[in-house]
Amino acid sequence: MAAYDFTKNEQRATDNGHEERPPNDAHEHPHANAMTSSVGIDRRGSFPHEKLDAYRIALELARLSTRVAAKLPRGHRSVADHLLRAAANTVLLIAKGANRRGAGLKHQRFVESRGECAEVAAAADLLKVLQLDKSSDSDELKHLAARVSAMLTRLIARLE
């Protein structure tokens, strides 16, 4: 029996000539799995923060930060540690803010998260200036940080 290849959205023929059909809930377009992000978070999760694009992008930021920090030389561990803490705090403060009830509490946590996100961007700049990043990872870090910051800015504006 042939399996359905969900990554390519193609049907494969079985040995007996029959094709296995995708499940009824699978879509025939590239966004077939749009409810799950690239970091594996289900948008239909039970927590409010799981529905926020800012949260999912912040998780990607944290994942990339971990990869970048692991490549930094030993004498620059303080930069790596700061990068990791700022990326983690960005994610955690978004979750904390999304799960608060009052607009003021949400606002404060999102503002704090945006500040942590700015620290990630500053760390990416520092990696470039100190020539510690041989790849384009620091550029990608800065790009993701800018996206999260813009999303947080819009969330903050909606609460004011």
User: Largest sheet, described in full?
Assistant: none
CATH topology descriptor of the largest domain: de novo design (two linked rop proteins)
What pattern of helices and strands is seen along the backbone?
A: HHHH
Give the name of the CATH architecture of the largest domain: Up-down Bundle
Q: How many helical stretches?
A: 4
Low-confidence stretches: 1-35
Q: Work out the strand percent.
A: under 5%
Overall average pLDDT: 81
Overall geometry comes to elongated
Instruction: Return Rg in Å.
Output: 20 Å
Task: Compute the separation of the termini in Å.
Answer: 57 Å
Measured as a percent range, the helix fraction is: 55-70%
How many strands in all? 0
What can you tell me about this protein's structure?
- This protein has 160 residues and is mainly α.
- Helix content is 57%, strand content 0%.
- The chain is built from four helices and no strands.
- Helix 1 (53-71) packs antiparallel against helix 2 and helix 1 packs antiparallel against helix 4.
- The relative contact order is 0.12.
